[in-house]
Every structure is written in structure tokens, then in C-alpha cells.
Amino acid sequence: MDVLVVVGRTPNIDIFSAFVAELKELGARVHLVGTFSEPAIDPEWGLGTVRRVATDGANLDWRARARAVEMHPHERFWAYAGADQEVLRLTKAADVIVAVDTKAYYSAWELARLNPRAHACAGLAAAQRKAQAVRDGVAQPPSAEQTSEGDSGQEERTSDIALLLGNEKLLGNKAGAVLARRVPLLPMREKTRVDMTRNLVTGLFAAKRNQAALATASSVAGRLRDTEARSEVLRTATRRALAQGSTPDTLLASAEADLAHADRLFADQDAAGAAEFVNHGLQTAFHRVAHIDQRMSPLPKRAEEFARLTAASTAASAVAAGRGRAHPVAEPEPGRPRRLLVVTDGNDNFLGLIRNHYESNPDVELRFLDITDYPGIKRLAGNRRRLLDYRLGGDPMYGFTAEQHLRPYLDWADTVFIDWCAAAAALFTSVDPGTARVVVRLHSYEAFSYWPRLTDFSRVDDLVFVADHIRDLALRSVPALTGPRAPRTHIVDNGMDLAGFALPKNPDARFTVGMVGIGQVAKDPLWALRVIRELRRRDERYRLVMIGGDMNTKASQAAAAYQRSFQRKVAPLVKEGAVERRGATNDVRGNLRDVGVILSSSVREGCHVGVMEGAASGAVPVVRDWPFFAGQKHGASTLYPADWVVSTPEAAADRILAVTADEETWAGHSRESEKYALASWDWPVVRGEFDRLFGIG
Questions:
Q1: Cα–Cα distance between 561 and 553 in angstroms, integer?
Q2: Fewer CB atoms inside 10 Å of the end CB: C or N, the chain?
Q3: For 474-530, how does the pLDDT look when each residue is reduced to its tens digit (9 = 90+)?
């Protein structure tokens, strides 16, 4: 057995001598080639060959020598080693080829390509294990993955040598990374290319070369013919970037590749397989890191691209295809109350006033269904794969079970009101609604999720939004909302009991800026810190009170990174008294008595209840022009009076100083804010909209 050891520098003498001794005990001949200090190599080790590669280019013609000077160091080493006839002779005879250091990895890979019979590995320990396996006859033949098509097998070999390119030490070196990224673009069969790219991309991420990993995946995907292979390569890189808390440029390309393979499986009538890849595609395209846990989302600016993503896919289109209803909506039987079913999925924050109102209305019989209280229904709603399989023509048991669970509710109700266009909406619209009218309310976050793409809107009669800018975004990004079977759309404000917030202010309220809710990245409390720093630079009497709990750092790396940054920057401001953290509370009204200015620093909102409650308390609103919607037809400046809205922390400080310039000025703005809030959003104003929506009264 011949073991060829390739080194780019002198190896550790103690370790190397022990390695040679152990291999000789296995009956191996060990040959050393590369660049090293010849005096350091002891003749008594008994090496079969000691070949120091010339690095002066003497064995190259003048053209090759000139090219070598311009190469990366690792590639230059290969230019010298590959032109050495003794190295090539030893390569042809080798049973195992091992690269010891980063400079040698690329050359060892090239040498292994010249001898498909040899096993290739990185590191002396790996070489020892491989040699032991060869001696014992348990090593898998390295040529097993070759094809029989001519001599192309030499180019198509992968196995051990793919691992050389994914080595973190090699990829941690800029020149090594550049060189390694070229290799998967060489001629080879697709499985080899995919395996090699997977190792390479993983190694690049481990070496913190994320952009290089994504660029490599994109380049390789462009050369792959098989839809599943292209899907795997792009998803490997894209999901790794998302897991590390960033939105990759490959987001839509990866989702498109998943859906392309789903289309192929769907055409082959493989509903379960197609469901798996539709699920992959939607999970990637609408991943929370891309849209929820960062201060910008690609969706508002590229809504039409997201719409085309699903519209262009036959499988994704089939999932959302309108199946319609078997019977038209029927009016209630004369002489009995209208039956209203209110449905939610664990979040009834915005249903309290609605439930109280209709429970006390003698013309309404109300039932409330929280699907989290019913494990069977909850399991159905949460199982996206089965829902997708059913929508694509498979898993008839899913449809049967959903029918069994939901039919009693649908047959009873005249109107079904589903709060949140999420799992419950997707489940309910998987079943024919009978003669019941279906109303769904979409708040804000759902527009950035995959759930509207899983909802059959041909079975939704009315779709309610809390603001025009959310409706605009949904209509631009969800194809089913603009077709001939799309539901009617409405804008109805959240029902809120605002009159109870009008309590007397405490003496220092004029100089206190308040925030309600800082537990999501979307609230962007870091922007609020910039405002208070700018404000105190001009007048140190001002301080910021933050009401609400911390973010869930387990949600994603992006949320965790934001929270760490916030904690680091808020700590010194708390210490100097500029910021007060009050944490989560059930008494928002009482806390707002201390607040003279209510601040919205969010990057996106549906309607920002905290601002509306603050305004109703007499706190003067200062609202950031939410970046997700800034510059569009609708946004913060159309939802609120335009003079409430600012674009920068400096402009926010200007407005705060202006509206609190003196006690009389602040009191006047306070009264105006309270009056506007109560006239616009208080429950007595809004409840009539719900009566009209549900056909009651």
C-alpha cells in the first residue's frame, strides 16, 4: 500500500514521524511530496520517497511560469506540483492521497482526480484511518461513484475528495476559498456536483464567508438540470443564512427552485411529494427572519415578485385554487336570532369588545371557538404538509376529518368570523362552508406569512383589513385576492375601549415620552433610543418610559441579535436616568398617566394600538413614518393626521419639543389628540361597522 503525503509547508516533526511509523506498521510505503525544509526530514524515518517540488518554475515553460506568478498561492503550488513528473508518477501508484495543510488541499484534490483508484482525505489522522481500512479490506472502493460513460468517470469522482474542499482551514483562507469555489463548476456528474457543493457551502458558512457560500450555491444551481438538485443546493445555502439571522439574496431563487420541483412532482401525480416541496418553497419565501425579525422585509418593495412566485407554479396555484361553495349564502330563518360563530387560534386580544357586544344583543346567538381548545382541530390546522397534500389531490382522510370536525359549526352558523388570516382560515376554507357567510380579518403580520397563500379565498365572502396600507400590500402580493372569485374587502378599525384611558396626567408627564410594546423587532426600540438621545442633547429634562416585555430571543438568531444590541445600548441610558424600563403590565391605562408624548418607532404596523391608546389618554402622538410603507400610497401619514408623522429621530425630537414647549401648548395638543382618538377609534364609533359587516341591526 502506497500513501502519498502532500504538504505545503514543513509538518510538525514529532507528529509526522509518529504517523510514518504507524503506517509502516500497517505495511505501507509513505511518500512525501511538496514544499518543506529538507533538513527537517530524518532519513531514518524510512520514507519511500522525499520529493521537494521546485517553486522557481524551472520545470514550466515561460508562458506557464508567467501565469503561475499571477495565481493565488494554493493554485500556484498546484501549477508547480502538477508539472513535476516524479509527483505524477507517485500519484498514479498511490492507494491513499492525503493533504496535510491548507496550502496542499487543492493540489491533493487535483492529484486525486488523476488517480480515481486512490482514496483522498485531509489530515494525518484521517489518512491513518483510511490506510487501516484499506489494509483490512473494509474501505469502500473510491471509484464506486464513477459512471461507465467513456473516461468521464475521472472527472466525476467525489467521495473523500469532496471533503477536502469543505475543510474549514482551507476556506478560512481567502485564496483557498476562491480556489475551492471554482471546483464545483468543473465538468462532473450532477450528484457529485451537489455533494461537493453541499460540503463547500457548509464549510464556507463555518468559515464565516456567507456571501461566498450563497454566490457559490447560485453559480452551481445555474449548471444543474435536475430540479431536485437545484432545489437542494439553493435551499442548503438559503436556509443556513436565514438560520444565522440574515436575509439572503437567494431567497426568491431558492423558493422558486423548490416550487419548480413541486411542479414536476405534481405533473407526475405525486401529491405528497409536491406538497413537501411547496411547503419548502413557502417556508423559505415567507421565513420569519426575512419579514418579521428584521427592520426591513423584501415583500413591500417586491410584492409583485412574490405574487408571481406562487402564480407561476402549477402546484402552488393548485393549493390556492378556488373551489368555491356548493350553495349560496342563505339569510337566517325568520323569527330567530342571527347565529354568529367567532373563531380564533389562541389569540383573542382583539375580540373582547366584539364578544361582549354580541353576547348581550338579543338579535344574535354567539358561539366562540378557539381551536387551541380542541386538539383534533388544532392538529389539523397546524399540519401544513397534510393540508397541502389534500389541496393537491391526495390525503382524502385529511378532508374527511376536517369535514367531520367543522361541519357541525358551519351548519349551525349564519356567519363565521375568523380572526387572523392564519391556520384557522386555511383550515376552514378547506371545507365547503355550506350556506354560512365567511368573514376573515387580516391584521398585519399574516400578510408577511405563507398562510394567505394557503387560504381558499373563493370561500371567503368578506375580507377585513385594519388599514389601507395592509390591504394594498395583500392585494399586490396574494394572487387570489385579485381574481374573479376574490372576496369583498373592507377596512374596519380594531374595536377598542378608549374612553377609559382619559385619566388625569401626573405632574412630570409633559417631559415623559412613552412607548407601549417593545417585544418585537418590528417595534424597533433602538430608533426610540436615538430619539431620546437627540432630545436630551437639547433638553435633559426629557426621559423615555418603555412599557412592555423583552423580545423572544428563541424565535430566531435575528431577534436574538437585535435584543443583544438593544440591551447593550439601553443599559447606560437606564443608568443615567434617561430611560425607564417598566416591563410587561396589565395596567397600560395607569402607566399612561405618566406619559405626555406617545412614540411609535416601529418599522411596520397595522394600526398600532399603543399609539391609539396613548392618544386617547391625552399623550401627544409622534409616529415614525413606518419604513415598510414609507413613500407608498397609504401608510402612517394616511392612517393618522399627517402632522403626527415624522421621518427621522431628529424630526421626532423637533415635534416633541414643539408640542411640549410650555404647559399650555402641551395641554392644547393633548386635548386635540384625545378628541381625535375617541372620535375615530373608540368602540361606540367602530361597532356600527361590525354590525354592517355581519348584517346585524
A1: 8
A2: C
A3: 999 999 999 889 999 999 999 899 999 999 999 999 999 999 999 999 999 999 999
Q: Could you say which DSSP state residue 620 is in?
A: E
Mean pLDDT of the chain: 91
CA separation for the pair 298, 316 (Å, rounded):
20
> Which parts of 268-395 fold into alpha helices (H)?
271-285, 288-291, 303-311, 314-320, 352-359, 375-382, 384-391
CB of 685 closer than 8 Å to CB of 487: no
Residue 301 three-state SS: coil
Lowest mean pLDDT among 75-84, 304-313, 649-658, 688-697: 75-84
| Number of CB atoms found within 10 A of residue 686's CB | 18
Instruction: Sort 456 into a burial class: Cβ within 10 Å, 0-12 / 13-18 / 19+.
Output: buried
Locate 636 and state its grid cell.
Answer: 402612517
The CA distances from residue 56 to 41, 80, 465, 603, in Å, are: 21, 8, 73, 60
Q: What pTM value is reported for the model?
A: 0.81
Distance CA 528, CA 127 (A): 58
> Buried b / exposed e across 142-159, counting CB within 10 Å, b at 16+?
beebbeeeeeebeebbbb
Assigned C-alpha cell, 371: 381551536
Q: Which position has the grid cell 487535483? A: 110
- Phi/psi of residue 269, each to 5°? 65, 30
The answer to whether residue 145 scores a pLDDT higher than 60 is no
> φ and ψ at 583, to 5 degrees?
70, -175
Q: Which residues contact 56 (CB under 8 A, 6 or more apart)?
A: none
Q: If you ran DSSP here, which 8-state letter would residue 605 be given?
A: -
Summarize the confidence of residues 593-599 as an average pLDDT.
98
β partners of residue 544: 513, 579
Nearest to 147 by CA among 123, 169, 116: 116
3-state secondary structure of 633: coil
Among 538, 546, 499, residue whose Cα is nearest residue 519: 546
Could you count the other beta carbons within 10 Å of the beta carbon of residue 419?
24
Per DSSP, which regions of 8-56 are E strands? 29-34, 49-52
Identify whether the C-beta of residue 127 lies closer than 8 Å to the C-beta of residue 98. yes
Residue range 224-251, pLDDT digits in tens: 999 999 999 999 999 999 999 999 999 9
Q: How high is the pLDDT of residue 593?
A: 97
Dihedral of CA 242/248/253/257: which sign?
negative
Tell me the residue type at 136. D
Please report, for residues 156, 391, 605, the alpha-carbon distance to residue 116 in angstroms, rounded to integers and kept in the order given: 9, 48, 60
Question: Which is more confident, 624 or 199?
Answer: 624
Q: Which of 439, 441, 425, 454 is nearest to 345 (CA)?
A: 425
Say whether pLDDT at 672 is over 70.
yes
